[in-house]
UniProtKB/TrEMBL annotation:
<dbReference type="InterPro" id="IPR032857">
    <property type="entry name" value="ALKBH4"/>
</dbReference>
<dbReference type="GO" id="GO:0070988">
    <property type="term" value="P:demethylation"/>
</dbReference>
<protein>
    <recommendedName>
        <fullName>Fe2OG dioxygenase domain-containing protein</fullName>
    </recommendedName>
</protein>
<dbReference type="InterPro" id="IPR005123">
    <property type="entry name" value="Oxoglu/Fe-dep_dioxygenase_dom"/>
</dbReference>
<dbReference type="GO" id="GO:0032451">
    <property type="term" value="F:demethylase activity"/>
</dbReference>
<dbReference type="Pfam" id="PF13532">
    <property type="entry name" value="2OG-FeII_Oxy_2"/>
</dbReference>
<dbReference type="InterPro" id="IPR027450">
    <property type="entry name" value="AlkB-like"/>
</dbReference>
<feature type="compositionally biased region" description="Basic and acidic residues">
    <location>
        <begin position="192"/>
        <end position="206"/>
    </location>
</feature>
<feature type="compositionally biased region" description="Polar residues">
    <location>
        <begin position="172"/>
        <end position="186"/>
    </location>
</feature>
<dbReference type="InterPro" id="IPR037151">
    <property type="entry name" value="AlkB-like_sf"/>
</dbReference>
<feature type="domain" description="Fe2OG dioxygenase">
    <location>
        <begin position="104"/>
        <end position="263"/>
    </location>
</feature>
<dbReference type="GO" id="GO:0016491">
    <property type="term" value="F:oxidoreductase activity"/>
</dbReference>
<feature type="region of interest" description="Disordered">
    <location>
        <begin position="151"/>
        <end position="208"/>
    </location>
</feature>
Amino acid sequence: MAVLNQAPVPTVDPSQPNTLRWDDIGLVLILDFITEAEEAAMIEAFHAQDPLGEEKARAAKRRISQHYGYHFDYTTFGASETHFTPVPSYIASFLPRLPIQSYLPDQFTVQYYPPGSGIPPHVDTHSMFGEALYSLSFGSAVPMQFRMSGPTDARKMRMPKRSLQSGDAGPSTPSFKPSSVETAPSQGPDGRVGKEEKKEWEEGEKQTPPAWELVLPARSLLLMTGPSRFGYTHAIRPRKTDIIDGKTVQRQGRYSITMRTVRRGSEIGCDCAYPGVCDARIREEMARGEGDVGPNR
Ligand SMILES: O=C(O)CCC(=O)C(=O)O
Ligand SMILES: [Fe+2]
């Protein structure tokens, strides 16, 4: 089993012992963001919405998703005012506790990861979503892998799109997927990671600067801004076991809520410091007709 580098040491303000910060990369992890009672209610609500989902996800060894809030409008390339799925109260109730209140997420993806499954390395779309990207974890802990993106990621973003499962790293169209940049395919249809995929994970983990893993405990809230949001890939390696606090533990079913703020009108776009993995830059390259680029065709 690959043992990855540990996450860099966080800064903790003694007055806020549950808030771990990596200020240089804009990453924050808030422990015990929700209570156990809230967690139990969320799990129940998720399954009530899709009673057969868990069984199907376990059989297929693939994660499943539920979408709430604003959908994406491909004609205006912005938030659709007509396609809106009401946000369940179990989500709405914790929004006033989010650390950034100047703008709040309005697009929510609730996912269930059956034991052993993961999500390939990707950067969530820059141009379509605001800077703050949240992930609330519940059900069980899982290590999330972070890696500064590099030339390989940039090259892959410009290659024809391989299929996304669940479409949960953002919206997609057949012609252009402005959403995530999946730099490696997910498990095969039987849930196993094929040889090729395994190689891609291993290569990614060998890159410099090196990939590292941060354990996201159940009930914790992750906030990505700045470099961790725009320049790093994040991923969950499909694995049967993880090493957590020095112990080998069996991967359990995990849930997460990814929360994004859909950009509107003149806010759409991006001029970040990471053009290699920036969908706005790739779109500009395409418009200029530079080479055979085209993310996700
Ligand atoms: O499950 C998670 O915590 C992250 C999911 C994710 O990266 C995404 O939906 O884009
Ligand atoms: Fe993501």
